[in-house]
Amino acid sequence: MYDLTSLGWGPFFAAAFERHEQEGLRPARVAVEHHGFYSLLTAEGDRGGIPSGRLKFEGEEPAVGDWVAVDELAGERKAVIHAVLPRRTKFSRKEPWKRTVEQVVAANVDVVFLVSGLGHDFNVRRLERYLTAAWSSGAEPVIVLTKADLVEPAESVLEAAEVAFGLPIHPISSVTGEGLDALEPYLSPGRTVALLGSSGVGKSTLVNRLLGSERLATAELRADGRGRHTTTRRELVQLPGGALLLDTPGMRELQLWADEDALEGSFSDVAALAAECRFADCGHEREPGCAIRAALADGRLSPERWDSHLRIQRELRALEVRQDARMTSEARKERRRFARAIRERGRIEREAARRRQR
What we know:
Layout: H1 11-22, E1 26-34, E2 37-42, E3 45-51, H2 53-58, E4 67-72, E5 78-84, E6 90-94, E7 102-107, E8 111-117, H3 124-137, E9 140-146, H4 154-164, E10 169-171, E11 192-196, H5 203-211, E12 235-238, E13 244-247, H6 263-266, H7 268-274, H8 291-298, H9 303-357
Parallel strand pairs: 3-5, 8-9, 8-11, 9-10, 11-13
Antiparallel strand pairs: 1-2, 1-4, 2-3, 4-5, 6-7, 12-13
Helix pairs in contact: 3-4
């Protein structure tokens, strides 16, 4: 059995749940997703969850970390999920296929540990992408650099600091325990922390260290010192101290699902320089008084940083265009469905009128 507060329940979710409580439903939190079947944490204990037909029809899929409204089946450790409560925060990406669809990686998270391995695994351009997604999520981003027992972290910490702008950066070793004490303030009871990063950076090893047990599978390092991908599903686990840890599979690529506002968080230095341009609509090309070009010329802004900003900006603008096109297409399909329903209702009414005349 669980105390809901220890699972992250609070006033935000309680207010959203009121109408479901009147329907006799109970709150539960999604711990694991198994291809349409869910492991749930409830006040009565662990339950298996299946979505209702209406939820499937509406295409509203719960994500790990979500709070849902359920109807428990009498005499069974199963429940039917009838609704997904509004999310307080969410870390999303575009589905790693061609469809322009949002994939919620972690829901209702308080803190996001952006995990990157030191040495060969460290890539500051990749970190910029994760920071952009993290700022869009609404959660607090924290940078965690693993494998400090293998590589001297000073150089990578300096590189991370150049793009993090005041965010906490913690080099750690899950093997020796170095630096783990610095993570404790984020792991207070009832708080949810998500671990996000590319494949093989040591997220599962960190989870096991914080749990104090080998609960999640890990793999040996490759010959080049890089990690191997081991986690295959998203899972929410409770730590001995009461915090909730959401482990995620490593992402081979992070296709962003955000708007351009997220760039102001991950590229605050670029935003500050752009605000100094003489013209508010400066294109940063040939306009006089361009602060961006001046900063590139005197070295205050590196070409790599500026190119990364432009690349992500183009990606987000292209995403917005695809989203608009998809919404237009869906609206068109909805109008067609409505027109077909009207025609069908008219046909049924005409057929009924003919039968009455007979």
